[in-house]
Specification:
- Keywords: Membrane, Transmembrane, Transmembrane helix.
- Helices cover 22% and strands 43% of the residues.
- The protein has a domain at 38-129: Sandwich (Immunoglobulin-like).
- A 4-stranded antiparallel β-sheet has the order 3-2-5-6, with no helix packed on it. A 3-stranded mixed β-sheet has the order 4-1-7, with no helix packed on it.
- The chain has helices at residues 2-10, 13-33, and strands at residues 38-46, 53-61, 67-74, 82-88, 92-102, 111-117, 123-129.
- The longest helix has 21 residues, at 13-33.
């Protein structure tokens, strides 16, 4: 009877799937291990002219110029004094493009901000001014 139990254990279907299951577990562990940290990017909207803005298009691009995150915000009566964007980004250098659209419709020229994030940076806060008021 002991020999029969041992033979059944070696022929168990789970044993044949074990290498595949181990690869899946290892893949999930590696995938979660290289997860980029969540960071909060915040801009204080300084100076005049922001009350005329009805929409902001925020674009984060990596060092190669590839779009990493894009978010559009609309406002009834101008944006709040602080705009934040939560995004998962690894350490590195990024460009943030902010397109502001006024009541009259077309976008103003983009505001481009260069941003360098280190491992310990979980929040980056900057001031943002409109370049010229039409």
């Amino acid at each position: 009877m002991e020999g029969g139990e041992r033979r059944n254990w070696k022929q168990h279907p789970l044993l044949r799937r074990l290498p595949f299951l181990l690869l899946v577990v290892l893949g999930l562990w590696l995938w979660k291990g290289v997860d980029a940290p969540e960071r909060e990017l915040a801009w204080r909207l300084e100076g005049p002219g922001w009350s005329e803005i009805r929409a902001l298009d925020l674009q984060v691009k990596n060092a190669d110029g590839e779009l990493v995150k894009r978010e559009t915000r609309s406002f009834q009566s101008g944006p709040p004094g602080m705009v934040t964007l939560v995004v998962e980004l690894p350490s590195g250098t990024y460009e943030v493009w902010v397109f502001a659209r006024g009541e009259s419709g077309p976008s103003r020229p983009p505001l481009v901000e260069r941003l360098t994030l280190q491992d310990e940076d979980t929040r980056a806060e900057r001031g943002l001014r409109l370049p010229g008021i039409r």
